[in-house]
Structures are given as structure tokens and as C-alpha cells.
């Protein structure tokens, strides 16, 4: 069976404007969108550019818009589409070429929330002879595990209208990752991250549209993380208000 | 890191929410506040009328009974129920509850909130029945 997919092309060397190009290709029940793009590249038009690597929804490289909805190419099957299939680069990111977008801003947002264990006061200095590992109970793990499944594919940023309206918004994945470390029993960096989260471009830009969680291929539920972050940020503000905390001043300096 | 080192796109157009059903439902959820504002203005007018005296109060009662106002307030009731339905589903995701270290299932939290609505409604009808 043959199906037609239309791809939004942008080849700045040849044309200043983007244009649509239709490809007809053979498909069966197991043909993923990524298979289709590979078929186009190998058989029909070698100038098509797109990103991919693992083809099993773990590298997070092959995100594109399918009929206006952000999807991973490898996790999208053409059998689920009758009629028109329109493929575009991920929304809300600058397009570099064809389906390849510039994700620099997303990486900046990720780095800004310090997504790593912060432990200024480890129990003991590291001793290579008798290394001491962190201990964590299954219950402590369960508090953040869901938010640790993010593969940084960026689909949630393409789903988020608030990020589309204001790219300075830290966005779903970055805030979900901040929340993941804030919830981790081994981490002590919550205070540092709060300065970043508890401001307009942090959690407070979110209006719980919730589409980010709908499109997330790993069921991270970033909308839940962001809104749990609002509860934490509100607590932080209240505590700072009564304690006259110096952290509040630092948070304001960012605004 | 230089904050503006990466490229920025122009912001979305005002009609961004017309693109998908999902965004339209979101805007519907947010728009439920509009009929509720009308209902609150009615209530405030009622309080002012109460202070002004019996004639004014009777006028307000008549106003509240007019078909257009009744229809608008029925719309406000429907809007608040829709908003409650969406809010109750979101609640367990924002405030996951744990009792004795075990997290409560989402549908139990949602059911609990609806049970609260029923209790308040029953209390309201009981008070209304006594008056």
C-alpha cells in the first residue's frame, strides 16, 4: 500500500522561503514515520534533513510536528493516519533546515535550573578505598522517578503555548527536571533552584494548559511537575516572608 | 552563559488557541470565569439592594427572576460545574496526597472532591428548605 506524506521543506541555500513537498511511498503496518523519512532520504530525495538516532524512543532526537501535534517520528506509525499526513519541524523553535530545529534555547533553560545533585555537605569526604554510596529507599525513589524519565526530546516545548508566547519561560522539561532534583532525598539544592523557579519566567508562566503532558512520549507529566513546583514556590515565598530570608532577595534580583 | 545567545522566534499570534481541540477546551475552561463574574455582580447588586430597603430588594428579586438573567445564571452554574470537573481532575496531579507513606489513587481524590460538592449542595438545600 502507498501513502503520501507532505514535508515542510526549508533549504536556505536554494530558497529563502519554506515550501511543501509531497512524497508517495510504500507503507505497511510496521512503518513508522521515521522509517518513512529514511525511505525518502534513501530512495526519493537525499537532500531531506532531519535528526534521528536510536529509533526506539529513548534518544529524543526525531521529534517533529505531525498534523500540528508534536510527536516522535519513531513512535508514530503511518497505519494510524488516514488521509493527509503533514510533517513540519517542531514548533516554537527556530528552523535551521527542513525538519532540523535549533534547540539551543531549550538547553539554556535546562542548564539554568541546575539539573544535577547538589550536595554541599556530603556525609564523608570521598575515599576511593572505601567508597560510600548514597542510600535511598524505594519510597524516596518513587517521589521523583516519574520525573526522571525525561529524554529531552523537546516535544513539550512545541506543545506549550506559553513557551510559544514567551521563549524566556523556562518551560515544561526544564522545570520538571528541577522538580525531579528537588524531590530527590540525596539533593540539597532546592534553595538554589527556587531562585530560578519562583519568578515569572519560572513556574508562574504556566497556566496549566496541560498539552505538554499529553504529548510527552515518556509519560513524565511535566504539567504536574510545574504545578507542584508552584506549590513549593508559594511555600518558599511564605517562609521567606516570615523569616526575612536572604534567598528572597536573590530571587528578586533575577526579575 | 549569555542569556540571549540563542535565536528567538516572534511570539505566537493571538489566535494560537484555534489550532487544536485541546487548546479550545483549555480556553473554554478559562472562559468559565465570564458567566461567573456576571453571577457575582448579581449577588453584589443583591446585597446593595438589601441595604437600600424593601422596594429595592423586591426590584432585585424581580430582576433575578427575569428569563435572560435566569438563563445567564444557569449558564454560570453549568460553567462552574465544568470548571469544577476540570479542576478536580487536575488536583491530584498538583497535590498528590499520601497517607502513611502510600499515595492515594487519583480517582479516589477526584471522587472525594465530588463527594464534597454533594455534601455542600445537600447542606445548601437543607438550609433553603428550613428558610
Describe it.
The complex is a heterodimer of chains A (255) and B (131). Chain A folds into two domains: 2-101, Ubiquitin-like (UB roll) (Roll), CATH 3.10.20.30; 104-253, Alpha-helical ferredoxin (Fumarate Reductase Iron-sulfur Protein, Chain B, domain 2), CATH 1.10.1060.10. In chain A, helix 2 (104-112) runs parallel beside helix 6 (172-182), helix 6 (172-182) crosses helix 9 and helix 7 crosses helix 10. Chain A has ten helices and seven strands. Chain A is elongated. Chain A is α+β, with helices and mostly antiparallel strands and 255 residues long. In chain A, the strands form two sheets. Chain A has a five-stranded mixed β-sheet. In chain A, strands 6-7 form a two-stranded antiparallel sheet. The model of chain A is unreliable at 248-255 (pLDDT under 50). Chain B is mainly alpha-helical and 131 residues long. Chain B has a single domain (16-95, 102-130), classed as 3 helical TM bundles of succinate and fumarate reductases (Up-down Bundle), CATH 1.20.1300.10. Chain B contains five helices and two strands; from the N terminus they run ααααββα. Chain B has helices at 21-31, 33-52, 54-65, 67-94, 106-130, and strands spanning 98-99, 102-103. Chain B has a two-stranded antiparallel sheet with strand order 1-2. In chain B, a hairpin with a 2-residue loop joins strand 1 (98-99) and strand 2 (102-103). Chain B is flat and about 65 Å long. Chains A and B meet through helix 2, helix 5 and helix 9 of A and helix 1 and helix 4 of B. Chain B: InterPro entries: Fumarate_red_C (IPR003510), SQR/QFR_C/D (IPR034804). Chain B: This is Fumarate reductase subunit C. Chain B: The chain crosses the membrane at residues 69-91, 111-129.
Amino acid at each position: 500500500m502507498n501513502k503520501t506524506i507532505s514535508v515542510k521543506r526549508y533549504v536556505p541555500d536554494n530558497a529563502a522561503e519554506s515550501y511543501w513537498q509531497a512524497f508517495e511511498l510504500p507503507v505497511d503496518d510496521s512503518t513508522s514515520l521515521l522509517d518513512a523519512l529514511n525511505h525518502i532520504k534513501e530512495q526519493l530525495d537525499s537532500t531531506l534533513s532531519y535528526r534521528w538516532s536510536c529509533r526506539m524512543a529513548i534518544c529524543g532526537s526525531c521529534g517533529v510536528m505531525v498534523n500540528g501535534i508534536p510527536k516522535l517520528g519513531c513512535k508514530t506509525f503511518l497505519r494510524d493516519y488516514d488521509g493527509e499526513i503533514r510533517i513540519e519541524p517542531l514548533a516554537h523553535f527556530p528552523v535551521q533546515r527542513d525538519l532540523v530545529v535549533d534547540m539551543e534555547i531549550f538547553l539554556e533553560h535546562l542548564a539554568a535550573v541546575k539539573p544535577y545533585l547538589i550536595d554541599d555537605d556530603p556525609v564523608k569526604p570521598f575515599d576511593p578505598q572505601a567508597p560510600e554510596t548514597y542510600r535511598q529507599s524505594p519510597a524516596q525513589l518513587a517521589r521523583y522517578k516519574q520525573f526522571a524519565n525525561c529524554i529531552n526530546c523537546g516535544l513539550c516545548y512545541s506543545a506549550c503555548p506559553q513557551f510559544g508566547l514567551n521563549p524566556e519561560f523556562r518551560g515544561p522539561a526544564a522545570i520538571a527536571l528541577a522538580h525531579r532534583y528537588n524531590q530527590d532525598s540525596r539533593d540539597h539544592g532546592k534553595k538554589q533552584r527556587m531562585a530560578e523557579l519562583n519568578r515569572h519566567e519560572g513556574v508562574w508562566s504556566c497556566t496549566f494548559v496541560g498539552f505538554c503532558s499529553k504529548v510527552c512520549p515518556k509519560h513524565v507529566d511535566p504539567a504536574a511537575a510545574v504545578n507542584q513546583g508552584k506549590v513549593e514556590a508559594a511555600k518558599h515565598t511564605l517562609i521567606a516572608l516570615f523569616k526575612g530570608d536572604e534567598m528572597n532577595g536573590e530571587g528578586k534580583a533575577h526579575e | 552563559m549569555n542569556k540571549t545567545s540563542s535565536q528567538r522566534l516572534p511570539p505566537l499570534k493571538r489566535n494560537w488557541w484555534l489550532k487544536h481541540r485541546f487548546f479550545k477546551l483549555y480556553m473554554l475552561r478559562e472562559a468559565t470565569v465570564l458567566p461567573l463574574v456576571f453571577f457575582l455582580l448579581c449577588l453584589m447588586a443583591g446585597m446593595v439592594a438589601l441595604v437600600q430597603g424593601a422596594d429595592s430588594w423586591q426590584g432585585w428579586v424581580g430582576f433575578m427572576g427575569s428569563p435572560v438573567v435566569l438563563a445567564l445564571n444557569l449558564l454560570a452554574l453549568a460553567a462552574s460545574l465544568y470548571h469544577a470537573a476540570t479542576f478536580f481532575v487536575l488536583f491530584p496531579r498538583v497535590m498528590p496526597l499520601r497517607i502513611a507513606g502510600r499515595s492515594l489513587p487519583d480517582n479516589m481524590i477526584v471522587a472525594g472532591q465530588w463527594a464534597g460538592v454533594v455534601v455542600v449542595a445537600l447542606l445548601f438545600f437543607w438550609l433553603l428548605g428550613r428558610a
